[in-house]
Amino acid sequence: MAQHITHGYKALLAEANSEVETLTVEQTRAAMESGGAVIVDLRDPRELEREGRIPGSFSCPRGMLEFWIDPESPYARPIFQEDKKFIFHCASGWRSALAAKAAQDMGLKPVAHLGGGFTAWRDAGEAVEKPKLWNKHG
Predict the structure, then answer these.
(1) Is the pLDDT of residue 18 over 90?
(2) Where are the alpha helices (DSSP H) in the chain?
């Protein structure tokens, strides 16, 4: 028997986007420049290697987010205890909307996400830190 999804990804995204602040590329850059924000890159390591990253961003694979945020988790990361604004991003803004909502639901604040994700950042001509190339000779 086939599954019948009653609350699909479009509904989840609509809910997340109605509850979480969405920032433009310009607003994200300004938050970075002010020093009061942590840019959290949710993309997986293969995406980072292939496309690069926003300079100064913190990499947190989406699957570890809740564990890294919670200070009671054995996987907790101190960066999520800082008194800063957390701006999440992924490739296009879908994972980051859901992640920002999850973080906000956990009590992390303030949080936001970059509308359009890394793609919007790169396409706006903003700085991209290129991945380090692997040494193929050892």
Answers:
(1) yes
(2) 9-19, 25-34, 45-51, 65-69, 94-106, 117-123
> Using the 8-state DSSP alphabet, how is residue 2 labeled?
-
Q: Say how many Å lie between the first and final Cα of the chain, rounded.
A: 52
In a domain, 69, yes or no: yes
* Per-residue tokens: 112: 């936001």
* Residue at 74 is within a domain: yes
pLDDT averaged over the chain? Answer: 94
Q: Which domain holds residue 97?
A: 21-123
Tell me the Ramachandran region of residue 110: left when phi exceeds 0, alpha when psi lies from -120 to 50, beta otherwise: beta
- DSSP class of residue 108 equals -
pLDDT score for 133? 56
The domain that holds 78 is classified in CATH as: 3.40.250.10
